[in-house]
Design goal:
Belongs to the class I-like SAM-binding methyltransferase superfamily. C5-methyltransferase family. The chain is α/β, with parallel strands linked by helices. It has 40 helices and 23 strands.
Length: 1053
């Protein structure tokens, strides 16, 4: 018996007083027991009862307390009658086991009685509403007090107590949600399926749903819950706790995910409508805006459900490609659960559908949809007699000047009108006013015909400048903080810029300048720049400048922060590659453009800014521009009294933009070409004296002329380095990771030699590259004799002797462990300009003496005839996870740079954000039973144990991005990234992708080492052999980052 059960029943007797015991006592006797034996057992207390004992035990306890407390005789006589009238029933059994099951079933009957008779939360709500409507006790607090006075509180935790909070929530739920029949029916369906255990049988859950919106939002949430449980079968009733639905302070809950899906569904329909698609297309989308409608026409995704009773989807084949793509988005994102985890993470940043669809993986879906839309629009416009561009009228002066055109005498009106047209044409040569567009395609179309889309002279620099202090928010005032940075605005602008120039990405000579308002937005900024292969620009392509302001002018303009005025902000400059500017003095501020500081910038007084009447400002802003942020500050300057309102209080002066155009060489095609010609001429004069050289130093000359009139002539003559290819060589070469890394860095290289003893490796390497020499073994005398010196040498010596997974023999392994000595001989004799040696972490943790020996040998090399060190030699343990790859691959990297060529201090590369695992995985390839059946016994055991661990930790194997290591003696898994790819495990594809229910493929492992999929060596060797090769490879982004830092310190160009 449970003490709590006795306590609850005790409280019942105390609250109700003497009444007949509600349940009978059931006693069992063995078959064949005589009446005499029964009488003896009864007298001796040996009869066996099987009915629950709490009822009569608690009765005895309560009466005993009455006696001890001296209750009056009348009360005790009443309780005596209760105890003498207890019903008892005797049943015959055939043994102990039958008695045991009899007892269990009697208790089970009580459980069923509880589920049948206990009022559900919905029933309690209707009881309270009936009490309110029929008896009209008054306020909600008075209802709660009246209820508590009439109903006995037993202290049970199973039934929610009715207090003011419960009454307040119950009436709110009834009046705002249960009054709708569809909502009531959805809740009833859950109760019919799960009884009182339904997740919707809790007042707190219902209240949270009720507060999430009005009827449409509430019905959407309830139907989504039903859909997830009964159709998708992605979650069960027990998973939907209040915490899971509502979320926490740091994570969004399922309710937010559900409502965001609805917003995304409606946004898709609105997006199509904004493109003026045929009305019947919109009707099709509106017919799919409920779960029931969608399931009846499209069915359940293959990821959820049992695949039975799928509707006829042949109707989709008759629809336009735009509709098919839009329905596919609904199926995957809105009515499917596969992307829920990604969506929940993205909600930390923004819940706006436009922002979410700009993020991967949704951006890829929208790219296909928009491409189909653009094709449809283009085809439609061909049939129109006149195409209207989405730009403003040509009458710029009357449209954008604050007060329009002043009235002029009638006799001059014709001449003045002609002058206005000429002025408009003149303005159009230098500036194009374009209202904010809803998409990048619309903006690209608006840019068509402007200077952006026209071919410019060689050497011309194109700038995309964005001021985040004003962008998207034209009504900011001095007492308000800056608006939140909207990455989608920048992303649309950048992509429209590239589209207008018929390019996929930024080219050389194109820059983006972003004024950040002293906020940390570099990460959001970098997410807007994507290369052709889908990878984001590296952080090293970003240069940070500082704009500093005149204090007096800033105080007159801006608010204070803790009594101080911020007199600087960052200007992020992003290029596709290294930032390269012809050196010159600044035109309007002190210093040169070789400095990262610009200023001091004197801000215009507010009265000198672009002032417009308030009513016109609203027109210029449009519907979406006013996004005030932050709220008022007590120490802000008073709002000035002006004839009009500034378009923005945070505008930069014209002088600043003139300086940007000059210092970043925007539009200076002829002058830049002259610099280039001068540089090439200087190079030719120098290179005629050198038949062959690897590097020509840059010669920078800066004139110190202070004549303001000749400012344009201050551009220095710059000699750019000659682009001779760098020479690369490697030993234990594998797939020649160094060449892939060089491609990633955009370096022009000449593969001089490689060396590997594995025939399969050689076959793949020679398929990918064309080396001038290829050696078969580092132990062959030809290697040291014929391998030449190079600019960069890579030696990834065998890891098995030093790995935790190997035998751990170290250099005692004569076949593999002593290879390092041959590489050290090569470095000593050939003295490459730079080198990298790479191996597993075990070289440091298990064989530190070998690592120390390597470092001692390399640092002991001296310049001939001196005691000066030949190399700068450094060592560090790096992890591929910190260099963009979702793989926990720790590697010891030893680097060396010739001190004779080393110009700057070396700094190890900074960490790069790990990319999502799903970017490297083909999520369209979903496994089936055959994948599971292909596993051997060890793999099955490890998979089963890992799934148990995942569930024990509160996870769901098929919903999270879990990777299970199938090999080894014990189970192991990772969430969101792979363990270290090893040779043996890659050979057997021994990694299980839980959400796809299959093993990883060789092509996916290839990508997870940072190798480009477009050169995947299909059918060159078997997948097993290719797996071995991939497992031995060096992660390409990690190596590229190290090489980049080395070449920064030791310039080879």
């Amino acid at each position: 018996m449970s003490d709590k059960s006795l306590e609850l029943q005790y409280n019942y007797y105390e609250g109700t007083g003497p009444e007949k015991l509600r349940e009978e006592i059931v006693i069992v006797v063995d078959k064949g027991m005589s009446a005499a034996q029964f009488q003896r057992d009864q007298v001796q207390g040996k009869l066996t009862r099987v009915s629950p004992e709490e009822l009569d035990h608690s009765l005895v306890m309560y009466v005993a307390d009455l006696i001890r407390n001296g209750s009056d005789d009348s009360t005790l006589q009443q309780w005596k009658q209760v105890m003498l009238n207890v019903s008892m029933r005797v049943e015959v059994t055939t043994g102990y086991e039958q008695r045991f099951w009899k007892s269990v079933n009697l208790r089970q009957r009580y459980a069923g009685t509880y589920d049948a008779l206990t009022r559900s939360t919905i029933q309690q709500i209707y009881e309270l509403v009936k009490f309110r409507d029929e008896f009209q006790p008054g306020t909600r607090r008075e209802i709660a007090e009246a209820w508590q006075a009439k109903v006995t509180d037993l202290g049970t935790m199973v039934i929610e107590g009715v207090d003011f909070s419960f009454v307040d929530s119950a009436i709110k739920i009834h009046d705002r949600m249960l009054c709708y029949p569809d909502a009531f029916n959805a809740i009833q369906k859950m109760e019919m399926e799960f009884g009182k255990a339904s997740c919707l049988n809790y007042i707190r859950v219902l209240e949270v749903i009720c507060m999430k919106g009005k009827e449409p939002e509430q019905l959407w949430i309830l139907n989504t819950i039903l859909d997830y449980i009964f159709q998708l079968k992605e979650i069960n009733n027990r998973d939907l706790s209040t915490r899971a639905l509502q979320g926490t302070s740091s994570t969004r809950g399922l309710l937010d995910v559900f409502l965001t899906k609805r917003k995304m569904m409606l946004w898709i329909t609105d997006h199509l409508a904004s493109k003026n698609v045929p009305p019947e297309w919109i009707d099709v989308m509106k017919d799919l805006q409920t779960h029931a409608q969608f399931r009846s026409k499209v069915g359940v995704s293959s990821r959820g459900g049992d695949g039975s009773e799928q509707p006829d989807q042949s109707w989709l084949g008759t629809e336009h490609e735009v509709i098919r793509l839009a329905v596919d988005i609904l199926k995957k994102v809105v009515y499917g659960a596969f992307h829920d985890h990604t969506l929940k993470n993205l909600l930390k940043g923004s819940s706006a559908p436009a922002d979410l669809f700009a993020k991967e993986p949704f951006s890829d879906m929208m790219k296909d949809l928009n491409a189909a839309l653009d094709a449809h629009i283009h085809k439609s416009k061909k049939n129109e007699e006149e195409v209207v561009a989405p730009t403003v009228a040509k009458d710029y002066l009357t449209t954008f000047l604050p007060d329009g055109v002043e009235h002029c005498p009638e006799d001059l009106e014709e001449d003045f009108s002609s002058h206005i047209l000429e002025a408009g044409d003149l303005v159009d040569r230098f500036v194009k006013f374009i209202p904010e567009c809803s998409s990048k395609s619309e903006l690209a179309q608006a840019l068509d015909g402007t200077a952006v889309s026209k071919k410019q002279p060689d050497g011309t620099t194109a700038l995309v400048v964005m001021d985040t202090k004003t962008c998207g928010e034209s009504s900011s005032q001095p007492h308000l903080r800056f608006p939140q940075f909207r990455s989608v605005v920048l992303k649309n602008a950048v992509q429209a810029f590239c589209m207008a120039r018929n390019k996929e990405q930024f080219d050389e000579g194109e820059m983006c300048l972003l004024l950040d308002g002293s906020r940390q937005i570099s990460t959001s900024m970098m997410s807007c720049f994507v290369r052709d292969d889908g990878a984001h620009f590296e952080n090293k392509t970003r240069s940070e400048f500082v704009v500093h302001y005149d204090e007096k002018s800033m105080k007159a303009r801006k608010h204070l922060s803790r009594g101080l005025v911020t007199c600087h902000e960052g200007m992020q400059v992003l290029t596709n590659g290294a930032l390269s500017l012809p050196a010159s003095r600044t035109r309007l501020y002190g210093g040169s453009n070789m400095s990262t500081s610009i200023g001091p910038v004197v801000l215009e007084p507010v009265e000198n800014m672009w002032l417009v009447p308030a009513e016109k400002k609203k027109i210029y802003e449009g519907g979406n521009a006013k996004v005030l942020a932050g709220g008022g500050l007590p120490d802000a300057p008073a709002k000035p009294q002006l004839s009009g309102e500034p378009m923005t209080y945070h505008a930069m002066p014209v002088k600043f933009y003139r300086e940007l155009l000059h210092s970043f060489c925007a539009g200076n095609g002829e002058k830049n070409q002259k610099r280039k010609d001068d540089g090439e001429s200087g190079e030719r004069n120098q290179t005629t004296k050198k038949a062959k050289t690897d590097i020509i130093d840059a010669l920078i000359k800066m004139q110190d002329d202070k004549d303001e009139e000749e400012a344009d002539g201050r551009n220095a003559v710059v000699t750019v380095m000659k682009a001779f290819p760098l020479t690369f060589g490697s030993a234990c070469s594998g797939i020649c990771s160094e060449l892939f890394a060089a491609e990633m860095l955009g370096l022009e290289v000449r593969p001089v030699f490689a060396c590997d003893c594995n025939q399969h490796v050689t076959k793949v390497s020679q398929h990918l590259w064309s080396h001038e020499q290829y050696f078969n073994n580092v132990f062959d005398k030809e290697f040291l004799r014929d391998a030449p010196t190079v600019d960069f040498f890579l030696g990834g010596f065998p890891c098995q002797p030093f790995s935790l997974q190997g035998l751990g023999q170290g250099v005692a392994d004569e076949a593999n462990g002593t290879v390092i000595y041959e590489l050290l001989k090569y470095i000593k004799e050939r003295q490459p300009t730079t080198f990298v040696l790479e191996n597993v972490k075990g070289l440091l943790t298990q064989h530190p003496q070998v690592l120390m020996e390597i470092m001692k040998h390399l640092r002991g090399l001296k310049v001939t005839g001196t005691r000066k060190p030949l190399y700068t030699v450094l060592c560090k343990c790096l992890n591929a996870r910190n260099h963009g790859l979702p793989q926990n691959r720790e590697r010891i990297v030893v680097i060396g740079m010739l001190n004779a060529k080393k110009t700057y201090d070396f700094a190890w590369p900074m960490s790069v954000e790990m990319q999502p695992l799903t970017r490297f995985i083909n999520d369209k390839d979903v496994g089936d039973e055959s994948d599971l059946n292909s596993l051997n016994k060890t793999e099955l055991n490890n998979l089963h144990e890992s799934y148990q661990k995942i569930r024990a930790g509160g996870g769901k194997p098929t919903q999270g991005f879990y990777v299970v290591n199938l090999g080894g003696t014990s189970s192991h898994y990772n969430l969101g990234y792979l363990p270290c790819l090893t040779r043996s495990r890659c050979g057997s594809r021994g990694y299980w992708l839980s959400w796809l229910k299959r093993k990883i493929t060789a092509k996916e492992m290839w990508a997870l080492q940072g190798l480009p999929k477009k050169v995947y060596p299909k059918d060159v060797v078997t997948e097993t052999q290719l797996g071995y090769i991939v497992g031995n490879a060096i992660p390409i982004p990690l190596l590229a980052n190290v090489m980049s830092s080395m070449f920064d310190a030791c310039p080879l160009h």
